[in-house]
Amino acid sequence: MILIRKYLFSASFAVLVAFSTAPAVLTAAPAAASEIKYVVNGAAITSYDIQRRAAFLKLQHRTGNLNKLAGDEMVDQALRTAEIKRLNIKVSDQQVEDAFKRFASSNKMSPAQLTQVLDHAGVTAQHFKDFIRTQMSWNQALSARFNSQGGSMSEQDVVQRMLQQKGSKPTATEYMLQQVIFVVPAKERGLIAKRKREAESMRARYGGCNTTREFAKGLIDVTVRDLGRVLAPELPSEWADQIKKTKVGGATGVRETERGVEFIGICSAREVSDDKVAKMVFQSEGNQDQQAEQLNKTYIDELKKRAKIVER
After folding, report:
1. For the chain, how are helix, strand and coil distributed in percent, rounded to 5?
2. Which of 28, 167, 210, 228 has its CA 20 to 30 A from that of 88?
């Protein structure tokens, strides 16, 4: 059963780039004319890769030796990519495209305008999408490492926080959720558009969690899963906003995922307050950014020690 969950470190590694409306033009060398600058575990990093990352850093208003910083970042990205592959973590093309669109929207641009800005600056949209894919996948790797190390607040930490708040326990919304998946096998991804229309049709007639299975009986390759009770801090970043905005008895919008296309039904929602909630809320409000940064550094340092990195 695939459970809905929160990715702990999405905020820590979010892209925080303020694009200029009139970026400086950087002359990008053609990929064919580029030279190999690093080889990381057999994967080549070229001068063209570094030049695009340096242009990206310039858009972020970073200072210093941008070529050196860009080379270091590309080496780290190659290490992350290899580890992501080893862990068999996959982020779909649609997830990347959705993140690209959200980023464009947050900067008051259309995806086409964002692509134009990136190309004009010498970054290219493809380089940025590769960056997005690595960051999204790496968040999952960090989350898995964090959980494997038992990362959480201790009971003593929770009591201390409660004492600071004069004994009051925080509250959180507890959802009962239902996942509806229109399955599309990896070898049949050409059916995505058709399945999405079918999912949209079902969602439009969605009548609440009690009737979903009966309704799905007449549909081909549709899976209905009861996800049980999920607290708001546990919601995964890709679904959280939609779930919070959807009324009880309704369903979120349809999204393409690695399983096919799906939506989430909101069976019920209520405010709860207990020790588990207190621990979770305090934890989500705590120093996760600092924890994530430290874990990221430790993880990368471990990968570097095991890696074969050749600079040319």
Report:
1. 55, 15, 30
2. 228
What pLDDT is recorded for position 273? 63
- How is residue 209 annotated by DSSP? G
Q: Please report which helix (H) or strand (E) contains residue 285, including its range.
A: helix 275-285
Low-confidence ranges of the chain (pLDDT < 70): 1-33, 147, 149-171, 273-291
Amino acid at residue number 183: V
Residue closest to 56 by CA, chosen among 77, 37, 84, 38: 77
Q: What is the pLDDT of residue 295?
A: 84
Helices (DSSP H) in 40-165: which residue ranges? 47-59, 66-86, 93-106, 111-121, 125-148, 155-164
Helix, coil or strand: residue 59: helix
The token duo for 21 is 């409306």
pLDDT at 274: 55
